[in-house]
Amino acid sequence: MPSPAEPAQPDTTAPGGIAPVERLGWANDKSLFAGRVAQVFATKIAQFVLGAATLFLIARLLGAAPYGEFGLLLTWIGVLFAVGQLGMPAAMTYMAGRGRSVVSLERMALGLTVAISVVLAAAAIIALPLLRDSVLRGLSGSQVTTSDDLLRVVLIALPCQLIMQFAAGILYTRGHNRAFNGIQVAQAALMLILTLLLVGVFPLGVPGAVAGYLVASCAGALAAVVQVRRLARRPEGAIGPSVSAREFMSYGIRLYPQNVMSFFNYRADVLLLSWLLGDATLLGYYGIAVRLAEMTFYVPDAISAMLYPAISSSERHEADRFAPAVSRFTMLATTLAAAAIIPAAFVAIWLLLPDFKPAFPALVVIMPGIISLSLSKVLASYTAGVGRPLPTAVAAVVALTLNIVANLILIPRWGIVGASASSLISYTCHASILLVLASRMARVSPLAFVLPRAAEFARLRNGLASGVTRVRASTGRSRPGR
Predict the structure, then answer these.
(1) Domain extents for the chain?
(2) Alpha carbons 404 and 409: distance in angstroms, whole number
(3) Predicted confidence (pLDDT) per residue in 332-391, tens digit
(4) What's the CA gap between 186 and 261, in Å, rounded?
(5) pTM of the prediction?
C-alpha cells in the first residue's frame, strides 16, 4: 500500500459508467469554496437564531407533552422521507456536479417528487394502524391530542421536503447558493411568525404548530421551484448532456442504504422511546435535549452542504487533498460550538423552560456523540462525493445495529438518558468506521482528519475577525448621518 504521504492518483471515472463532463471549476478553488461555505454558514446562523426562537416559543407555549407530540409528528415525516427518497436527492447533487443539464435535472426532480410522494402517502395511510401501536405509541393516551387525521394531513410535507432537497442539489452545485440560502432564511422566519400567530395569539396547540410548519414548508418548496425554473430558462440551463433515468437511479440506489440507515441511526432513539415508554412528556424532554444539541450541526451542515457538490465536481487527487483540511476545521469549530451550547442551554432551560429541566442530563450525555456525528457528516460527503457510497452504507448499518441494541438495553433502565447514551455509542462507532475508511481512501493518517493544526486556528480566527468587521461596517452604514 502506498505511504500516507503519497498522493492518490487522479480518478475521473464516475461510478456506474457515468462519463464525467468538464469540471465546473469552483470546487478546486479553495478561496471560492471558503466563500460559499461562509455564505451558507451565515444562512445557518440566521436559521439558528430563528430556529432557536421558534423552538423555545413552541416548547414554552405547548408544554412538555404536546411538544413531544409535535416532535414525534416531525419524526414521522422524517421516517417516511428517509424510507422513500431512494437516494435520489444525493443523485441529483452528483449529476448536477457532473454537468448534466439543468433542464433535464428539473424534469427529473418534478417527476420523482410526484411519484415518490404519491407512493409514500398511500403506503403511510395503509400502515398507520400498525404504526399507531408501535413506534407511534407515544401519540396515544388521554393527554394526547394528535388524531389520525393530523397524521394524514402532515403528509403534505413530503413533496415539500423532496423539492427542497432536489433544489439544493441543483442550485448549490451550479453556484446559485445565495438564492437558496435566502429561501431557507425566509422559510425559518415564516415558521416563527406562524408559530407566534397559530400557537401564541390563537392557541391552536399541536394542530396550530403543524399548520405553521406545513405552510412554511410549502412556501419554501414553491420558491425553490421558481428558482430552479429560472435557472433552467437561462442559456446555460441547457448546457451539458441530459441525465437519463437509468444512470440517475443507478447512482441514487447505491447511496440509498447509506442514507436510510444514517437517518434511522439519528432517529431510532425517538422511535424506540415512543414504542418502549409511550410517554409524550418524556418525548418532549428528549426532543428539547436533542434539538438543543443539534444546534451544533449548523457548523458541519454549512460545510457538508458545499463539500459534497465540491467533491463531486473535483478531480480525485484534489478531493483527497482537500477533505482532511475541511474535516479538521469542522472538528475545531464544532467542538467550540458544543462547548458554548451546553452552558447556554443550561441557562435557557432554567430561565425560559423550567418545565423541561429533566432534559438537561440527556443533553450533556448526547453532546459528545453530536460532535462525532458532525465528523460523520463531513466524512460521508467525502466518501460519497468520490463515488464510493458502499463503504459508507456498511458503516451506517453497523452503527444502526449497535444503536438499536443499546437503546433496547438502556432505555428501560435509564429512560431518556439511556437513549442519549445509546446515541453517543452508535454515533462514535459510525464516525470511527468512516474515519478509518476515509483515511485509507485519502492515504493519510486518521489524525489528519481530526486534529486541528495552526492553519485551522488561523482560519477560524480570521473568519471571526472578518465577520465582526462586516457587522461593524453594516452597523456603521445603518446609523443616521453616516
Answers:
(1) 26-468
(2) 9
(3) 888 998 999 999 999 999 998 999 999 999 999 999 999 998 898 888 878 776 767 677
(4) 31
(5) 0.78
Q: Which amino acid is at 436?
A: V
Give the DSSP letter of residue 137: G
For residue 165, pLDDT beyond 90:
yes
pLDDT digits (tens, 9 = 90+) for 109-164: 999 999 999 999 999 999 888 888 777 777 765 455 666 788 889 999 999 999 99
Distance CA 336, CA 332 (A): 6
C-beta contacts of 52-58 below 8 A and 24+ residues apart? 52/295, 53/192, 54/188, 54/191, 54/192, 54/195, 55/288, 55/291, 55/292, 56/348, 56/352, 56/353, 57/192, 57/195, 57/196, 57/199, 57/200, 58/195, 58/199, 58/209
- How is residue 301 written as a grid cell? 451542515
How far is Cα 170 from Cα 216, in angstroms, rounded to an integer?
A: 21
At residue 9, does pLDDT exceed 50? no
DSSP annotation of 135 reads: T
Total H helices, total E strands in the chain: 16, 0
